[in-house]
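Journal club prep — side note

Before the paper discussion, L.F. wants everyone to see what a predicted structure for a comparable chain looks like in token form. Sequence:
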Amino acid sequence: MTGIKSIEDLRALKEKALLGLKQRETSNKPYIVVGMGTCGIAAGAREVMKAILDELEKRHMTDVLVSQTGCIGLCAKEPLVDVTLPGQPKVTYGNVNEAKARQIVAQHVVNGQPVYEWAINVVEAK
């Protein structure tokens, strides 16, 4: 188990999680999140994640943070991929497959040009 035995342990865990989130938000590194809930996995999210990691490795891009998340709630648009570049809006892509994932890395992550035709949401940077 998690070893939480008191409210203080729970508060410490919460603070650690919030610090991790804040570090991601204030990071000067590109950040990619792949939706890996059961609906995403069933729609091909594992293959999308593998394609993203492979494409980053081929390009020797070790400064990109890549993570996964659970269900986002847009099952009809899975697999979902969020891309956030420093100083740019967060772009959420829907219905991503391996080929699209590779192009998103090449065009958006490498060249800073979002592929708006596949975007389902754009959130301006704070």
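L.F.'s comment for the group: The chain has one domain: 28-123. Keep this in mind when we get to the figures.
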